Amino acid sequence: QLPTGLYKKVLVILHDSVLPYMNEPTLMMDFLTVAYGIGGAISLLALNGLFILIHQHNLEYPDFYKKLYSLLDPSIYHVKYRARFFHLTDLFLSSSHLPAYLVAAFIKRLARLALTAPPEALLMIIPFLCNLFRRHPACRVLVHRPGGPADMSEDPYIMEEEEPSKSRALESSLWEIQSLQSHYHPDVAKAAAVLNQSLSEMEDDISGLLELSAYELFDKEVKKKAADVPLEFEQVRGLFGKKNDIFAEHFSLD
User: Fold this and answer.
1) First-last CA distance in the chain
2) pTM
3) Which of 83, 205, 208, 224 counts the most CB atoms within 10 A of its CB?
4) What pLDDT is stored for residue 105 in this prediction?
């Protein structure tokens, strides 16, 4: 049993400062699989090392996607290692051989959690979901299903289900993104409206959006040039500004 702080310090540098210099990186399989099962930020950090072992050293992890699915909770859009996590999740979901029910479960869970996510995370996750639809056309039924559930109570998707195959995500629709089309931030609403149109074949580059912060988003809004707004040229008379207003006889604007 290692202290949490030590786990984090080791896992942050393991994938690029330790594994490449080991004669037998497979010796780290047990350590990384145990770290991946701990949960929280430690599991997120263990993903880097696991990816190298799976991709380059033929590590088999039968419940890998089930565990990755369980890591998706409301904090995922707020954690310090958000960019690293979504970069790796993008890689893990890039294979066209993944079953549609699995990808649909990831899409649906990320969309549900997006309802409470900050704007800077939403501007990253919406293109992320669009890329998943481009790679896995079978999941587009979530967008184009007519007469989908009107609200959460009618949605067949089971958010609490830990097994992606039993979540019934493919029976649902993506009403969460439609809700985001009325988001208070205009950039988010504009990004969510993309799903109303047919998606292009070219994937969106999300690398520049993974590190987007609230400060950068605010700074961008501050630097926008405001358009000239036409003002009322006719002098207001009365309470409601109408001619022959009966209130003007009894109330004055002075």
Assistant:
1) 75
2) 0.76
3) 83
4) 93
Q: Which residues contact 175 (CB under 8 A, 6 or more apart)?
A: 148, 149, 150, 151, 155
Look up residue 37 and give its two tokens. Answer: 């099962």
The single residue listed with the structure tokens 């790796």 is: 88
pLDDT band at 82; cut points 50, 70, 90: confident
Q: What is the DSSP string of the chain?
A: ---HHHHHHHHHHIIIIIGGG-S-GGGGHHHHHHHHHH-HHHHHHHHHHHHHHHHHH----TTHHHHHHHT-SGGGGTSTTHHHHHHHHHHHT--TTS-HHHHHHHHHHHHHHHTTS-HHHHHHHHHHHHHHHHH-GGGGHHHH-TT--SSGGG----TT-SSGGGS-GGGS--HHHHHHTT-SSHHHHHHHGGGGSPPPSSPP--TTTTT--HHHHHHHHHTSPPPPPPPP-SPP-SSS--TT-GGGGT----
Query: Where are the domains positioned within the chain?
Result: 99-222
